[in-house]
Amino acid sequence: MSTPDWSPFRDLARRVLREDAPLMLTDDVRALMLRTAEEVSITDAEAALSTGAGALALVREAERRIAEGSNRLTDALHRMWKFQRQGDYDSARQQMREVLAVEVVPYYRELALEQLDDMADAP
């Protein structure tokens, strides 16, 4: 899986959610929102885009999934590396298992699985 480019979506979310810019559902914005929704495992995006409130809720949920997933994975990676430096590979693996237990964004799940795979030969 390639690294998703969420920059355009995150720019849109910042403008709409933090700067109170109106959400204009142009064809490009709709395509961006549908692609991002798919990348973060939101299944009802097309229906959400049928109303202004639904579109705004979609922006909020996709942004939440991106931000929380990134923070969750980054925090877990730091703890994992700390445990690895201490030689505690069971605890290091557990950090990635905990991410996988709650993470829905495929990209973040893939990164956590890669970390587990990288530790497969560790004690």
TrEMBL record:
Q: Which residues form the DUSAM domain?
A: 4-119
Matching entries from Pfam families are given as:
DUF2379 (PF09543)
User: InterPro entries, per this entry?
Assistant: DUSAM_dom (IPR011753)
In terms of NCBIfam families, this protein maps to: DUSAM domain (TIGR02267)
- Name this polypeptide is given: DUSAM domain-containing protein
| Source organism of this protein record | Corallococcus exercitus
